[in-house]
């Protein structure tokens, strides 16, 4: 009987471990791991097949974002708007999408305003807004439902340099930059608000990592959603957290941005200095 009990216990433990490993493998299955994207391929779609994964059971979908308090409107469809840098357009070149995805660029939003043309939504303020990931129309935010672009920013404070896996869901055209580098470009919608086609391995640097997420929409459903792998959510702090406006957001991220990531712009400048 004792031997039978030990065998049963061992079998149960092995089964539990296998189930756990299987779940982990599914949750962290990566099908894009060759980033960041080279500039010549910034508007190219992923070359690998979509996963069509249902992530509705994930509890870590991001709900709070920092960005313009309204959308870019009348974009003439996502195919027309995607190649355009709407941040550069809104700030007369004081900011652009690449710079906005760095700590230095993010800080500039405290003094650089968004001022799109009246037909495209007009002036916007930088603020914290909240979206319901389960809502297939969470991009609308009280404005037009079609022909819009939404920008959202989160700051991921990592305890060390590390790999992370990000899982976006979007309708339609998604683009994601981190620390001045582009990591994701996909013109195809993911099929559902909590469905993921690509799990993308990205590099996080110690300190604050600025993630800029843009989605352009033409018609029908309109959603912008993102979560990272469980380990990243466990060991990293993600902001906005408790903040609800620009002032409280920058108070909240002050500690994260005090150790600024070595983003693309900083690295380029450092390389120039070394070579002189």
What is the domain total for the residues?
Answer: 2
Low-confidence stretches: 1-26, 259-276
Relative helix content: 25-40%
Question: What is the count of DSSP helices, taking H or I runs of 4+ residues?
Answer: 8
Strand content: 25-35%
How many DSSP E strands? 15
Average pLDDT score: 88
Q: Round the Cα radius of gyration to an integer and report it.
A: 20 Å
Shape: globular
Give the class from helix and strand content and strand pairing: alpha+beta
**Biggest sheet overview:** 6 strands, antiparallel
Return the string of H and E elements. Answer: HEEEHHHHEEEEEEEEEEEHEHH
- Calculate the terminal CA-CA distance, rounded to whole Å: 78 Å
Brief characterization of the structure:
This protein has 276 residues and is of the alpha+beta class. The chain is built from 8 helices and 15 strands.
Describe this structure in words.
The chain has helices at residues 2-27, 78-81, 86-91, 97-100, 103-108, 230-235, 246-258, 264-274; strands at 53-54, 64-68, 72-73, 114-115, 123-124, 126-130, 148-158, 162-171, 173-178, 181-186, 195-196, 200-204, 207-217, 223-228, 237-239. It is α+β, with helices and mostly antiparallel strands and 276 residues long. It has 2 domains: 1-30; 32-274, no CATH class. Strands 3, 7, 9, 10, 13 and 15 form a 6-stranded antiparallel beta sheet that branches. It is globular. The protein starts with a helix and ends with a helix. Residues 1-26 and 259-276 have low confidence and may be disordered.
